[in-house]
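job 3f2a | input accepted
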Amino acid sequence: MTDATDAQLAAQYEALPYPARDPRDEAKRLVVGSPSHLAEVDHWVFGARRAAELPLRALVAGGGTGDGAIMLAQQMAWAGRPGEVVWLDRSGAARKVAEARAAARGLENIRFVEGSILDLPDLGRFDYVDCCGVLHHLPDPLAGLRNLSSVLAPGGGMGIMVYAPHGRTGVYMLQDALRMIAPPGEAPAARVDLAKRVMRHLPETAWLRKNPWISDHLPLPQGGGDSGLYDLLLNPRDVAFTVPQLDALVRDAGMRISCLVEPVRYDPDFLLPDPKLRARTAGMGLVERAALAEALAGNMGIHIAYLARAEEPELRADWGDASAVPLLRGGDGASWARGIRGGSLPITYDGLRINLPVPPLSAAILARIDGKRSLGEVARAVEEGGAAPAAVARDMAALCAAMEKVNRLLLTAPRGP
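job 3f2a | predicted structure (417 res):
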């Protein structure tokens, strides 16, 4: 399935491993994101029903310099979760960086394997597969997705990220220009030099200069340095997917979308408060509503999705289970409580501000969520503070529904007695 463009792509990642990472930085911070954050995998893939004691086998396909693999393996280690993360990529240069990062952290739950998604080595079955920022570079994205779905264990799921067109406004215009002045057949170093020269003289009218959400082409540390510039503007193959195109790809691979991250971004009602307009959106299906939100917002440069096999039953986290333990993904409960203004939480996504309505007892509830107390224990603690049980039940249900939509309140994997 490889072609001349694929050979150029392979040469790119050998010359400029992506993303640019220094193993010495592992002592300072853990790069965290989506997909494959352990809390998200527990919640969106397994519906917070898969026991934490069960070993988790995860494949990070197209692992690059290691962001996804390192994040998941470190989170598993910190949580004392058994299992293995298998890093897979065909770039030996990227492997060296990823291995050095794992060594800097003393991680022993990662295995490194060089290989291609389009010609998968025999690695067994996986409970979870990550494919972040890879499918849009493949000569055949559908074949790649089908290959990955074929190694999923029963009940397993995937986390993917693909480029989206509207938020990348300006990128493809500049790619066209650079193909003329820095042809793909030239060496990566020469192309980077030419691209930098172009960027120094980029007209004010160039759309990329007006797109504040794209920064990979900027120098480190603000952007991605040379490897980021090459990946964004000189990449020989870069295909973006709208929501309907992504949904079609996933369906053709025998999968379905379980969640688009963050769900609230794909809800057009937050963008269209007019009742007459909402009457129209109410008759739309999930994909149609998401496509409308994507087209209206204009700032989505990527789509992150969790997938499941189409024929398997849908797993949703059960917020009605009083024994389930809620976890805030990012920040602590007290900080979230302090952020409430006039009955809403302001949340910003790539310049788009959303005021998330929250119920009256939200501050009291959030302040008591610590990742250890169950939903039932949180409710009792709020009641002990003087709130009526009926009001607590009502407001907890509303708050959980609201904050799940922004991917900030999730349920953890259940633990045995």
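job 3f2a | The mean pLDDT is 96.
job 3f2a | closed
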